[in-house]
Automatic annotation (TrEMBL):
Pfam families: Fn3-like, Glyco_hydro_3, Glyco_hydro_3_C
Reaction equation(s) it catalyzes: Hydrolysis of terminal, non-reducing beta-D-glucosyl residues with release of beta-D-glucose
The protein, known as: beta-glucosidase
Annotated SUPFAM superfamilies: (Trans)glycosidases (SSF51445), Beta-D-glucan exohydrolase, C-terminal domain (SSF52279)
Sequence ranges assigned to domain Fibronectin type III-like in this UniProt record: 651-720
Family to which this protein belongs: Belongs to the glycosyl hydrolase 3 family.
Family annotation (PANTHER family): LYSOSOMAL BETA GLUCOSIDASE, PERIPLASMIC BETA-GLUCOSIDASE-RELATED
One of the record's GO molecular function terms: beta-glucosidase activity
Domain of life: Bacteria
GO biological process: one example: glucan catabolic process
Transmembrane segments: none
EC number from the UniProt entry: 3.2.1.21
Record key words, sorted: Glycosidase, Hydrolase, Signal
Amino acid sequence: MRLSDVPGLTQLVLAFALTVSFLPTAGAQESQEQAIERRVNELLGRMTLEEKVGQLNLVSHGPPLRWEDISEGKAGAVLNFNSAEDVARAQALVRESHLKIPLLFGLDVLHGFRTQFPLPLGEAAAFSPRVSRLASEWAAREASYVGVNWTFAPMADLSRDSRWGRIVEGFGEDPTLGAALTAARVEGFRKGGLAAAAKHFAGYGAPQGGRDYDTTYIPRAEMYDTYLPPFRAAVEAGTASFMAAFNALNGEPSTANPWLLTDVLRTQWGFDGFVTSDWVGIGELVNHGIAADGAEAARKAILAGVDMDMMGQLYINHLPDEVRAGRVPESVIDESVRRVLRTKFRLGLFDRPDVDSSHLDSEFPSPESRQAAREVARETFVLLQNRDDVLPIPSKVRSIAVVGPLADAPQDQMGPHAARGHKEDSVTILEGIRRRAQSAGIAVRHAPGCDLFCRNTDALPGALEAARQSDFVIAVFGEPQELSGEAASRANMELNGKQIEVLEELAKTGKPVALVIMGGRPQVLGPVADRIPSILMAWYPGTEAGPAVADVLFGDVSPSGKLPLTWPRATGQLPLYYNRLPTGRPTLANNRFTLHYIDESIAPLYPFGWGLSYTHFAYSDARIASRQLDEGQVLEVSLDVKNTGARDGQEVVQLYTRDPVASRSRPLRELKAFEKIALKSGETKRVTLRVPVESLGFHLDDGTYLVEAGAIQVFVGGSSLADQVGEAEILKTFRIPPMERRASASTGVAQ
């Protein structure tokens, strides 16, 4: 089945694209925006206070939603509607309401709707805005087909601590990578038919101890430099909305934080869409200890800048009384409603026909969506190590033992937050290997070796026997889905259960072993990294996990993923990240009184940006176009990259900089640009990476961006261990005020 063959789908997607790719020219933009503002103000003038507050109420399918709330104008948006029949019923009730204001239908569509793509952290390993845009567009196409028009994504939370379970929903630890991919996801969702809600604003990814929902302490300058750039990129890419975070930031809960929601988001960045709370987030202000009751919580949230109350019912229950008592000006309510209505007009919801109630998500996965999911997945796999070139599977191999409970785990391979994903749609890793092996006349044996959580190893003897009888062993272990995602923080990051024991026993068989790790974050491998020669990180690969993994294991495609975060040796190293500040006592191997641990190496197991290929790449002839740079100019670096191996492959060329002497201590390295290129065996390409001078500075606490005169060191290579290729000099110091737009950090990223 082709998407164009689905009744009404092409028209629906095209209609959406026409209404939200608003702004073909500056003149058209102005007239269109003026028309929208006029319609918003006219509608607002006809609304009662209760109807206004109704637009700020976001409720979920099922209790406490009453269907009559929709016809009575008591809901402005709903969530967890995922069938066209229910959406159509709700849309019919809207037409019975006084003002007939259409609903936003929201859903967590993070990495697919019915067809599941790799989880966002895995997708980030592709280091490709094109891939991120493609995956998001497909997710949106399927969701919008059944009437969903708003997704609570992308998650733009940067995290440096893989103990935090929700790290799987983001892009890793780097703001430049995060800004590029956040923007790409917003654009992909919009192209496919979904408005985006960038979340969680802000600082949610840095909780104390890696504990989900715990408080965060981040200096404001660090917020501007590290944690806010992906959110600003979401604004620039056209996100329709933001979601406030659960956490308290520096003692001030994000849901009642005017610095975040008003000063930064609206005043400095000019965002004029709306902000929603997270699930019951406004009510949680009582638990945070800054509100005595629901009425005070509602008052503090609306005054701080939260426009919509998700599942708290505090706005609809308390705001009318707060306005009448004079504690909340009605003008504040009007502005929040204006933001919501503005978004609905921009999305074309007032003029869009109701969804066809006969549309079913069972139309998917289609052959096209499966192919897209397969292509995206194999871009994300990271070959962590490959001693003795164990992979790809040699052509002489005639039998393979597939060991591990996650080899045949159709539910787990989809990962958390799988929207309408069905395990029956999944092609498991075991099945993918069997299909590919059959075409080559290779026998496949399967033995799980232990249960899903590897607590019981009664099946280990059978797995060892299968290994001994085979020429090659593929071990598939890692994190079952339940151990990753929201509310899945871990204090111990070692491979759970008895996985290490099983893998060590497999290594003792003497057979070549390739380990495929499934999971939502790096895990501490301990002795496994020494005992197993080849390790491939597959993340949660989605619906087409099997064919994609088989493509890479058998060498039909060379792995090209790069780590979007630093891989620790031990849990005690966390948080761990490459772009740390220097210390006055840098590590010296034979000096106890320098930066190090007494019981573990200070270095990560695998660095940020790391990832091997089945071929090899050589970098040469690096040249900096101009070694003296002034305001408004660009740092331009060109170099040759050659595929020196016998196989075709892809490489992610990465450019890092360092400001070695500044008024504030600056990171040892910062990723500033990257480009993913494909090279045939023996081929050479000239690659040029560009970084605006306006991206070579840092923020002050008030949001001012400071670029200082002086030397900038430049490094280019295939990971954060890249070699220095030269130095440039910024000629003069200049400042950019917080409210002035500057070149986005993603400017240096090839699209």
